[in-house]
């Protein structure tokens, strides 16, 4: 799922390890996304934004897939993987039940926040691309971080919004969190009642919402850090717009999905 990462200047990362994980809970999220919950190994941790590799050697041999961790490292017991149904590998996962055994290895990835920084955060996600960003938001909220956070989140329809109920709760809990939703397939029945934006995350949307967020929070002279996760065109647009707004390239990070 995670193909490419562009991040520089990160602190040292936790060492990865492989373990036999028991699936303890399956949570239905959207029509084509489920969250799979596992116990964490003792003393194992990760940085918000990282991922684990998933193996089923008895079925796929050495083939594996990478899935971002959606939970916060502050959770003492569990890690959550939110996975979209797509392809043979995930169809196998969809047939598994609670109590089944998985092989997990990690954490991996340079796409993660510097949790010792106080930089404001701009997060851009599309669909299931919100998973590593959700880890960051959960972590910031649960640790009562003072970092200002803006999330721009794109989906097709309201029923496709992953973590919708929890995102509403997190925004209420965290006065530093602002969430902007946009839908790309808004039906006629909702076009007069939908309170968010419409259309894909494009250059104008990024520029308008970022400038408004900076002005409302007095961040004109701050140095926000951005993290984008989703389709390549969205990420390329994000980088182009932020560079035009004079953000330094080392503050612009992304993971590409395809």
Keywords:
258 residues; alpha/beta; Elongation Factor Tu (Ef-tu), domain 3; Rossmann fold; 2 domains; 7-stranded mixed sheet; 6-stranded antiparallel sheet; 13 strands; 24% helix; 33% strand; globular; disordered N terminus
Characterize the structure shown.
Helices cover 24% and strands 33% of the residues. The chain is an alpha/beta fold and 258 residues long. The strands form 2 sheets. Strands 1-13-12-8-9-10-11 form a 7-stranded mixed β-sheet, with helices on both faces. The protein has 2 domains: 2-108, Translation factors (Elongation Factor Tu (Ef-tu), domain 3); 121-257, Rossmann fold (3-Layer(aba) Sandwich). Strand 12 (225-231), helix 6 (232-244) and strand 13 form a beta-alpha-beta unit.
Spatial ordering of strands, largest sheet? 1-13-12-8-9-10-11
How many DSSP-defined strands?
13
Q: Sketch the topology as an H/E string, one letter per element.
A: EEEEHEEHEEHEHEEHEHE
Q: Give the fraction of residues assigned to helices.
A: 10-25%
CATH fold-level topology of the largest domain: Rossmann fold
Strand content: 25-35%
| CATH architecture verdict of the largest domain | 3-Layer(aba) Sandwich
Q: Helical segment tally?
A: 6
Mean pLDDT: 92
Number of domains: 2
The end-to-end span amounts to: 7 Å
Write down the overall geometry.
Answer: globular
CATH class of the largest domain: Alpha Beta
| Main structural class | alpha/beta
Uncertain residue ranges: 1-10
Sheet with most strands = 7 strands, mixed
Radius of gyration: 18 Å
Give the secondary structure arrangement, pairings included.
Blueprint: E1 2-6, E2 17-30, E3 33-39, E4 51-55, H1 57-60, E5 64-68, E6 78-84, H2 87-94, E7 101-108, E8 121-126, H3 131-142, E9 149-155, H4 164-173, E10 177-183, E11 197-198, H5 203-216, E12 225-231, H6 232-244, E13 252-257
Parallel strand pairs: 8-9, 8-12, 9-10, 10-11, 12-13
Antiparallel strand pairs: 1-13, 2-3, 2-7, 3-6, 4-5, 4-7
């Amino acid at each position: 799922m995670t193909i490419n990462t562009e991040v520089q200047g990160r602190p040292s990362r936790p060492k990865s390890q492989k373990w036999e994980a028991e699936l303890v809970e399956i949570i239905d999220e959207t029509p084509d996304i489920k969250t799979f919950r596992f116990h964490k190994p003792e003393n194992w941790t990760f940085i918000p934004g990282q991922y684990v590799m998933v193996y089923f050697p008895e079925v796929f041999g050495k083939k594996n897939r990478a899935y971002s961790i959606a939970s916060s490292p502050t959770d003492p017991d569990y890690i959550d993987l939110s996975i979209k149904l797509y392809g043979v590998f995930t169809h196998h996962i969809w047939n598994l039940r609670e109590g089944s055994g998985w092989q997990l290895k990690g954490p991996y990835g340079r796409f993660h926040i510097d949790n010792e920084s106080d930089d404001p955060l701009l997060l851009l996600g599309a669909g299931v691309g919100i998973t590593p960003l959700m880890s960051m938001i959960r972590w910031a909220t649960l640790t009562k971080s003072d970092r200002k956070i803006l999330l721009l989140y794109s989906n097709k329809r309201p029923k496709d919004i992953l973590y919708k109920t929890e995102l509403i709760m997190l925004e209420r809990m965290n006065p530093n969190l602002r969430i902007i939703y946009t839908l790309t397939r808004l039906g006629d029945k909702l076009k007069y009642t939908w309170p968010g934006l419409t259309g894909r995350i494009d250059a104008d949307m990024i520029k308008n919402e970022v400038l408004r967020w900076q002005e409302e929070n007095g961040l004109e002279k701050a140095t926000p850090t951005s993290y984008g996760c989703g389709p390549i065109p969205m990420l390329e647009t994000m980088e182009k717009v932020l560079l035009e707004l004079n953000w330094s390239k080392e503050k612009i990070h992304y993971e590409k999905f395809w």
